[in-house]
Design brief:
4-stranded mixed β-sheet; 4 strands; 17% strand; alpha/beta
Length: 95
Amino acid sequence: RVLGTDGPPVLLLHGLVARVGTGVAPTTASPTYRLIVADLLGLGRSPHPPTGYGPDDHARAVIGCLDALEVGEPVLIGAHSLGSLVALLAGARAN
């Protein structure tokens, strides 16, 4: 889910159990940011991957999501639990 069209992108990544998109996204949406709320693989509206659910699989999916949204600039990431590990891996792979 993407809220807003202008401003720097902010990506929210949930943990294994808690999902940030349901309650947090509408209250944190701002006209000065492009808020991107992603579901980790197999959760919410995200597809079930044929390869697995490891942190590297999630990181590749996050990068694919940002690529599909044509996000080319640096992304601020807010993450919880497993989402934090995925954020670190995605950041390391994106460079």
